[in-house]
Design brief:
This protein is mainly alpha-helical. It has helices at residues 11-33, 58-72, 77-89. It is elongated, with a radius of gyration of 26 Å.
Length: 91
């Protein structure tokens, strides 16, 4: 009796290729939906070659996070002002 599904014993290879294909699709979907690893097609302006990603100022990022926390109500006005002043003094 032939229990190999008519593939002559190569059924395992087909199954392995299908599994690799599914894993690759999941990886690509995660990168596309999750913003990628930073080396994608975004950031090419005017058709030129992509350069290195611009470095964000750490203080600007800290200020943005502070603004977000205040907007969400995680910190009150006094704490917001105190932390903003500390950030501004560090400039």
């Amino acid at each position: 009796m032939d229990y190999g599904g008519g593939m002559g014993g190569w059924g395992w290879l087909f199954g392995a290729l299908v599994l690799v294909g599914v894993v690759l699709l999941v990886v690509v979907a995660v990168r596309l939906l999750g913003g990628g690893s930073g080396g994608g097609a975004g950031g090419v302006a005017g058709g030129g070659a992509p350069g290195p990603a611009p470095r964000e100022d750490p203080r600007a990022r800290a200020r943005a996070l502070l603004d977000e926390r205040y907007a969400r109500g995680e910190i009150d006005t006094d704490e917001y002002r105190e932390r903003r002043q500390a950030l501004d003094e560090g400039s």
